[in-house]
Amino acid sequence: MPQYKAPVQDMQFLLFDVYNAEQHYAHIGAEDASRDMLEAIMAESARFCEQVLAPLNQSGDQEGCTWTEDGVTTPSGFREAYQQFVENGWPSLASPVEYGGQGLPESVGHIVSEMSGTANWAWSMYPGLSHGARNTIALHGTDEQKETYLGRLSTGEWTGTMCLTEAHCGSDLGLLKTSADPQEDGSYRLNGTKIFISSGDHDMAENIVHIVLARLPGAPSGTKGISLFIVPKFLPDGTRNAVNCGSLEHKMGIHGNATCVMNFDGATGFLIGPENKGLNCMFTFMNFARIGTAMQGVASAELSYQGALAYAKDRLAMRALSGPKNPDGPADPIIVHPDVRRMLLTQKAFAEGGRAMLYDLSQQVDLVHNATDEAERQVADDLLSFLTPIAKAFLTEAGLESANHGVQVFGGHGYIQEWGMEQIVRDARIATLYEGTTGIQALDLLGRKVLMTQGKLLKSFTRVVHKFCKAHDGAKGLKPVIKTLNDYNKEWGDITTKIGMKAMMNKEEVGGAAYDYLMYSGYVTLAYYWARMAVTAQEKLKDADDKAFYQAKLDTAQFYFDRILPRAGAHKAAMLSGLDNLMTPDL
């Protein structure tokens, strides 16, 4: 398994050089988030993730979780690591002060989440879903529900889950059958079975708070008849509730996380929000989870890159075509070979570019929650709405590609379990599936976020890119990069108009174009973030002590624009080729 090293320098570059974190936090009234505090958080989080979580990654995969009638047991060391995590106050970092939290912005917690997720994704899912449960109750719960659950969810004493999927319905939640019958005391009795429930049962926390979608008697069919409920493993009075893990899924990866079949056999639940508006309330949870899943793409790319880079420097095989680079050895290290460098640079471009995208998104979350100006909050919310499906789908696809490159760099050794590279592929594979598959995200982007808003959300982002290009069109050494980005940014709108015209004639054209439209959007969006990093790196280079770091940013940006961004052209051709080549062939 690769020896994880938190990329602290890269994180600091983004926070302080690219995104001006101190000014950002001062603007939203979070002056406590000073540079000194942020650097201390990063250093201590890096230590915990490198020394405690990373060593459990491979052993947790090999041991997996164990089901018994009394509950699920997590792999050796997971429970102890979680107790240390809670004792050190990490779950409360971005939780409200009134509920025992430290009150820092969400983007600060994002830093810790990325480190823990890269070090050990399966472990990180146990506390990771609690944030969504906490936010859902905070926004939609009653005062009594907030008082009962938010404190212990904030401190990590309890964990949370989201229970949506049933065996007969995945992303089509309108088909769900779990029922909720009202009781005289104001509670509800839930009956049904949910599947694929991450962290559904475990031995790491005292209680698990399930956020569950179910139907009330006489509710309208489809998504308009879904309500949302809190169903705790242990009720507020300490009584064991009638919700149990019926079995563990036997799955491809993330073996250290308990993916459960959850049976609700007359379980007591409590309504959150209005009746039949559960899906609206659940979007609080789902949007947070989608950004968290996008982070898995970055984590997969980063961990695989770290492993592949170390191996490529050490592994000797063949000679460089231009002559020996290691004349005293029997062969050259494989890092000198162009194709190996292609794979490593692709991993690096996706990991660092994806991190830049997510750090921007996390600051937009801060603005939505904390900005005092309503117009500023709306701008941030529009950007989040547009970029979330791109981040979730594109970054997870890029993370999976990067994980596969890691195996390829290792050659046959990458396919062998002991090196840990194949585990990254297995763990990364789910990220393109859960919280909405790539195709579902693509339909959300093109259908709901672009066409249904008459391009409003697309324009809100392309306007940002245009202003950036205009402000830096004379950047020394970067004029070709800025011009290329500006050209793609203009083309994006033109392509959207063409697809919109086709969709007016046949709505199926949206489905036919959606995947390629999303991938095109992803490549162009990542180009914007690489251009931003390149401009900053160019500015810092002249006075920097560590010139190699900033030069590497410039070189990787050039690689991205030369070698990866041209893929967008193929997606353009595919999405504009029409529907017939999909719907006419006999299958």
The figure for the number of domains is 3
CATH class of the largest domain: Mainly Alpha
The number of helical runs is 19
Q: Which assembly state applies to the chains in this document?
A: single chain
Q: Kindly report the name of the CATH homologous superfamily of the largest domain.
A: Acyl-CoA dehydrogenase/oxidase, N-terminal domain
CATH-assigned fold name of the largest domain: Butyryl-Coa Dehydrogenase, subunit A, domain 1
Strand content: 5-15%
Low-confidence stretches: none
The tally of strands reads: 9
What class would the helix/strand composition place it in? alpha+beta
Architecture (CATH level 2) name of the largest domain: Orthogonal Bundle
* Largest sheet descriptor: 7 strands, mixed
General form: globular
Order of helices and strands: HHHHEEHHHHEEEEEEEHHHHHHHHHHH
How would you describe this structure to a colleague?
This protein has 587 residues and is α+β, with helices and mostly antiparallel strands. It folds into 3 domains: 8-155, Butyryl-Coa Dehydrogenase, subunit A, domain 1 (Orthogonal Bundle); 159-277, Butyryl-CoA Dehydrogenase, subunit A, domain 2; 441-587, no CATH class. Helix content is 58%, strand content 10%. It has 19 helices and 9 strands. The protein has helices at 8-18, 21-27, 35-53, 55-63, 78-87, 106-119, 121-140, 143-155, 278-314, 338-370, 374-410, 421-429, 438-451, 456-471, 479-505, 508-541, 547-564, 567-575, 580-583, and strands spanning 66-68, 71-73, 158-163, 179-182, 188-198, 207-214, 227-232, 243-248, 259-272. The strands form 2 sheets. Strands 3, 4, 5, 6, 7, 8 and 9 form a 7-stranded mixed β-sheet that branches. The two termini are 42 Å apart. The model has no long low-confidence stretch (mean pLDDT 96).
